[in-house]
Amino acid sequence: MDGLNWNDVRDLARRVAHGAPFALVESTRSILRRTAPQVGIALSDVERALQSEATAEELLAEVSRRISNGSRRLSRTLAEVDRCRDAGDVDGARQLLNDVLVVEVVPHYQDILRANLAALDDES
Fold first, then answer.
1. Most CB atoms closer than 10 Å: which of 59, 68, 98, 118?
2. 3-class secondary structure for 60-86?
3. What value, to the nearest 5°, has the Cα angle with vertex 115 and ends 70 and 79?
């Protein structure tokens, strides 16, 4: 995915989580408009959320949650897939990837899962 950079949204979410006041300024709007669709949130939902400070702050929390939860889920899954592959259980590895693909909402993470599935198919 071109232009994928979540550092600014993660930094903003971390500051707010540690007590910094949330301000719905243009830079915050820009960050959320860019990153929310990258984590699977419809642009129409983003625009609705940006109508108030409270809903924009909730959107920030959701974007941050999707990034961190998806990242942890992906890391755990890929480690398990490697263990299955090392044990010769390609079908088990494939099932793990498919199971996570069903619940993953972040397109970038979905792409990584699909690439790993394709690599398993090439091994078979």
1. 59
2. HHHHHHHHHHHHHHHHHHHHHHHHHHH
3. 55
Q: How deeply is 55 buried, as exposed, middle or buried, from its count of CB atoms within 10 A (0-12, 13-18, 19+)?
A: middle
- 20's tokens: 């910094």
- Helices assigned H by DSSP within the chain: 7-17, 26-38, 43-49, 53-86, 90-103, 107-123
Residue owning tokens 């979540």: 6
- Output the pLDDT for position 121: 84
- CA 5, CA 35: separation in Å to the nearest integer? 8
pLDDT tens digits, one per residue of 32-73 = 999 999 999 999 999 999 999 999 999 999 999 999 999 999
Determine contact, residues 124/94, Cβ cutoff 8 Å: no
